Amino acid sequence: MRIYPAQQRRFLERLGCRVTGSSRSYRVEPPSWRSDLRIPEDLYEELARLWGYERCSATLPPAPRQAVTSSWKSVEDPWIGRERDIRQCLSAAGMQEILTYSLVNPADHERVKSLAGKTPLELENPLSVDQAVLRNTLRIGALQTLARNLNRKTAESLQLFELGRLFGGDLKESRTLGLLVAGTPAPSWGFRPKPLGIFHLKGIVQLLCGRFRLDLKTKVGSIGGGFINPGIRFEINGKPFGTAGQVDSAVLAAFEIPADFPVAYAELNLERMGEISPKPVRVQGLPKVPSVLRDLAIVVPARSSPERLLEAGQILEAIKESGGPLLRKADLFDLYQGPQVPAGKKSLAFRLEFSAGDRTLTEEEVSTAFQKIMDGLKTSFAAALR
Q: How confident is the model at residue 33 (pLDDT cuts 50, 70, 90)?
């Protein structure tokens, strides 16, 4: 319902206001004792109170819908949708999100051995010593959360992630993703529980990069202090993306976590995701005829050099390169080192899928592609059929 000008003047005079001017345009001066009446909206609120809130319409003022939508799209931060997708992907993988403080104790950086020559940014007037510096790793909050849950015996295993910002000495902030897996899942029917570790983290990172269509590469090597080396280094388009490793027992002891409790941690630089365009989506039609499956079991040296292990990922990439257009898929399904394999060697088994899509492959075509793969492995890795 509408409040007419004459009614407005009467209500304002009841408030003790001085009203001057015509009925259509007048000036209002609040009394000296009403210090709360400073802006026009304060007067509107008083008018609505005197008129009666129940008599006021509950509808929003009219606004062009398209204009509001366009305005929102023009100012929306692209990271809003990106971080939402990251949360959905990791939650679907069985992980739980945590939020920890950006301010930490200076001693915590030493406890996780994450300084690496970098001094954390100190506050001039901190509230307490536990919140005296800005963090340069998310590992501190993740380990503190793990220790707190273990002390309360809330779960036998935890899978945690945090989207946060790290702070450098030059006041530069960087978006970062921390991933932690720990413990052994509870046993269930038909399922043999295995401790969560570095390879579980690797699979989660691969799942995440697949969601954003990023070309992820992994390398085994040293990843710095606080971890049991070797660890895993992640790269996107040849640029560093992050690391993953098994947390050292000395670091676990510093956070009062049992030394025999398996804990793996990964930290990814999300700024790299914003710099790289995702790969284009390629859609293939469903095959009209069944594929041909072959298993390939080979024996290779355990090390490519005295200082470096021979990675199964290197062999898998070589298989995909030499397999040609008929090789649709290749997966590693077995790794064995034991009495039946010579010392200094290891056995790897791969499942290969061949298909032409629109026709049935002949035995000769499959054998030729299979032999080409084997010849390439012999040349590159001194591989032998098992």
A: confident
